[in-house]
From TrEMBL:
PROSITE patterns, per database record: CATALASE_3 (PS51402)
Family: Belongs to the catalase family.
GO-annotated cellular components: mitochondrion; peroxisome
Protein name: Catalase core domain-containing protein
Signal peptide from the UniProt entry: 1-19
UniProt entry keywords in alphabetical sequence: Heme, Hydrogen peroxide, Iron, Metal-binding, Oxidoreductase, Peroxidase, Signal
Pfam families xrefs: Catalase, Catalase-rel
Amino acid sequence: MRQLVVCVCVCAVIEHVIAYRYENETGMGDAFSQQLPEFRQRHPRPIGVWTKLTGDPIDLRDTITMNTDIFNNKHHFLVGAHLDRERIPERIVHAKGYGAFGYFEVTHDVSKYIKSDVFNGIGKRTPVASRFSTARQNLGGNDLSRETKAIAIKLYTKEGNLDMICFHIPVFLYKDPIEFPAFVRAFRRNPRTGIVDNTARWDFLTQKPDFLHANLWLQSDLGIPDGYRKSHYFPLHTYEIYNKHGERFYVKFNYRAELGMVNLTNAQAAAIGISDPDYYNRDLYNAIAAKNYPAWRLEMDILTKDELSKLDYDPFDMTRLWKRGTYRTVPVGRLVLNGRVDNHFKDVETSAYNPDNLVPGITGPPDLVFKARKIFYPDTQNYRLGVNHANSRINAPLYDRNYNRDGRPPLQDNMKDAPNYYPNSFSGPMTYVDEARPTERLIPLQRNAFDLQPVSEFYNEIIESDDHRQRIADNVAESLVGVSPDILKKALRLLTLVDIDFGRRVRASLKAQQLASAEEIRSQLAQCIASIG
Ligand code: HEM
Ligand SMILES: *[C@@H]1O[C@H](CO)[C@@H](O)[C@H](O)[C@H]1NC(C)=O
Ligand SMILES: *[C@@H]1O[C@H](CO)[C@@H](O)[C@H](O)[C@H]1NC(C)=O
């Protein structure tokens, strides 16, 4: 009986989704599927003679090998050999992503806080590249999985590239960066079964409860946004910035979606995911094609140096929010994405975002997680893309002159005949001095202790209704199905420590979910998908 109800409800959702996508309720049409016809419209005739990579034209007779001496067909060998080598390593996290171009426009005067050229001069526009991603999926994974969604933004400013790498939830997972590798493994696939393992996940969570807070945000309604456009984004770190007088401020940046935060239910996400795991990508492409340009308002939460020293919490701890009433928020500008990438591999896969790409006016976040990121982003990019990855068109700044030479391409012009050592007396690139740059750096002492208070606050204050608390409990319970009994006991104890009501709800939900055998639900689902053809 219970399972019958599940089936009816899922079928209804699938029909709704199909209607939603194909009857243009969004007013966007399906530009995605028009890409090839669109190309032909721009090029009614073939764009040229097909050549080998070295330029010699390809003879029609070399495009088949039947009844020929295939080892004499150079063309056959070259295209096969190229295909054999097409893959490069996918990103170790956030492997599945999608890109868009656009601009950032200054809307408010924030010169009293920050001297960076990109944020000064109302109306000033700076070109932007961006890459959206979903955290745990491999290339080709499902956009609709319940996990962190993200945007990485590259602002090509006159003072160099400024990269801002953001999560769609306002808290991070941990404060000690050495936990990153273990976390990534515990939440990915079991080395023997090759399957995501809830026991490993909760084993890790119960021993490193820091991770619980961000995980609960992801188990909430926020865990599955309705596409990349309908979500806020947060670079999360507390950045140290300075103005032209050298005065320092501590800020959190927030990108607030003009479309607001819109979420999908589990049933909607499951139904869409079955037919369209690229739903987020398609949505973004279609929206931009229809000139429904997604936009975000950039704002800064600000603390002065003085205020910072009087707080009763650690403002550099990304596993918690800044306490309400301790800071003020000022608007800065507007990010608009109005351009589709014309080649996904070139503009998205080979892009390299690094949170340490900063510009004068921003000394950067002083916390430990950031210090670790300074090392590991360039490290992985040197491996993934090679040591000259900053030379590719998507990664190169508007202006650069340097003393690097050689290495595997891309090389640009390799600085031609300019002197290749510094200092030199022969007009090589010279340095400048930023008079305002602070001469000292703040080195915060960060506490190791784990604090459940922000997690309880999230459950009791940020979550607005009991219905929502129940949905979180149901999602958490789902992730506890099949967890080994000793770990399960620890998990339930931890959740009860967050809140007694929470522990109770999860326990009850788990019991109900255990009653419904996973196998039966699966066959029921298969039947109802078959029945709607
Ligand atoms: C110890 C801390 C961290 C480490 C070691 C780390 C490591 C990495 C690595 C190795 C990559 C792959 C980069 C590439 O191949 O280009 C990556 C990507 C990414 N990380 Fe982190 N990360 C950390 C913290 C964070 C934080 C705090 C955020 C959010 C504010 C974040 C958001 C992202 C995003 C969005 C991407 C994908 C970027 C893209 O689209 O290219 N990470 N991270
Ligand atoms: C859907 O949108 C496209 C593009 O805007 C339009 O050409 C098409 O006629 C629309 N289809 C329907 C059924 O409204
Ligand atoms: C999405 O979830 C967030 C967090 O609970 C909530 O504030 C927001 O109103 C939700 N939006 C929709 C449309 O469900």
